[in-house]
Amino acid sequence: MKNKLTVRSPGRINLIGEHTDYNMGFVLPAAIDKAIEFTIEPTTGSMIELTATDLNETVEISPKNNIKSGIEWVNYCAGIIDQLTKKNSRIAPFKCSFGGNIPLGAGLSSSAALSCGFLMAINEFFELGLSKVEIALMAQSSENDFVGVSCGIMDQYACIFGEKDALIKIDCRSLEHETIKGDFDGYSLLLCDTKVKHSLASTAYNTRKIECEAGVKAIQAKNRNVKSLRDANLKDLEEVRSSISQDVYDRCEFVINENNRVLAAIKAIKNKDMKLLGSFMFQSHEGLKNKYKVSCTELDILADFAKKHPAVVGARMMGGGFGGCTINLIKSKGLDSFKTTAASHYKLKTGKEATFYDIKISDGASKLYY
Ligand code: GLA
């Protein structure tokens, strides 16, 4: 056991590739300069003492078995302890306090940052020897099994493997990634936070996953080589149209197109074609709104406004949906004018204040100092 140490664990953006991760496809996220910092140290007590400094809350949980708590953030930590118990990892009671500046409910994966950072801190503190991929996978399992959201691997992987000034193309089947160093010279990535998070988000998320699985099952009856939507094309889908519902068809069509868009977007970045890249972002939003049906009025208002603004080359909703942020690719010169006009348009249409985040792409989670 170490004496005391600190771990930094960032949030993430996703340039393109939404709802493709749990379909074993490709995504293009990056870790950002908003993060949670954890300090872990020994305790004389028999329990794990957790303090969320931003909320000024301290809770004790067991180092072995925990039941689900009514406090959301506690479940992300208890879920990690649950994973470690299942793996028979040798951990003892400890104290851990954490806090940071990732806006909650904005779709920047503060929950993945919490799970991954907490596990990384424990891994370092008790010298458990878990690899980076193991940390990402255990954090995902914790969210799936303990918290109860069937999320894919994107958020945890981006949090752990992110690299300064680079997007990472993750192959969600092989769990390998390629670093994409785009030249975004003259352009900025801006997040516009709707400040809403509609309550149906996690239920709808789980339903979408089931609908995709139904599509795969139908396609598999004709083509056994298709193990997930990543392996399917639009022709495969067309062939089973009569045996699936319109909803299942639409969901699968979106995922197949979105997966292709990720690969096309990477080519556009490599060719420095920002206009083309932006057009894929607009298409992604259209699909998420009309086919995958995970957008909401507030996101559509911001995305539609961005589409009409002369400085914007691409915009779309980001993350699971039903609230959170849009991600916008904007000519840097027009950034200020965009913010001012978008804010007043959003206020006029919704009565709410949008918040803007100029983000910088940063390194993934790491130990800071002893
Ligand atoms: C959430 C999930 C991710 C991913 C996105 C949608 O952020 O946690 O795994 O599925 O939604 O792309």
Structure description:
The structure is a single chain. The chain has 370 residues and is of the alpha+beta class. The chain folds into two domains: 5-181 and 362-369, Ribosomal Protein S5, domain 2, CATH 3.30.230; 187-358, Alpha-Beta Plaits, CATH 3.30.70. The protein is 41% helix and 24% strand. The protein has helices spanning 72-86, 110-125, 132-147, 154-161, 201-220, 234-239, 246-270, 274-290, 297-308, 335-350, and strands at 5-14, 26-27, 29-42, 48-52, 57-61, 94-100, 167-171, 176-180, 187-197, 312-317, 323-331, 355-358, 366-369. It has a six-stranded mixed beta sheet, covered by helices on one side. Helix 1 crosses helix 3 (132-147) and helix 7 runs antiparallel to helix 8. Alpha-D-galactopyranose (GLA) binds at residues 18-19, 21-22, 151-152, 154-155, 319-320.
Give a concise summary:
With 370 residues, this protein is α+β, with helices and mostly antiparallel strands.
CATH topology of the largest domain: Ribosomal Protein S5, domain 2
Question: What radius of gyration results from the CA coordinates?
Answer: 21 Å
Shape by Cα distribution: globular
For the record, give the distance between the C-alpha atoms at the N and C termini, rounded to a whole number: 12 Å
DSSP, total strands: 13
Mind describing the biggest β-sheet?
6 strands, mixed
Percent helix, as a range, is 40-55%
Strand content: 15-25%
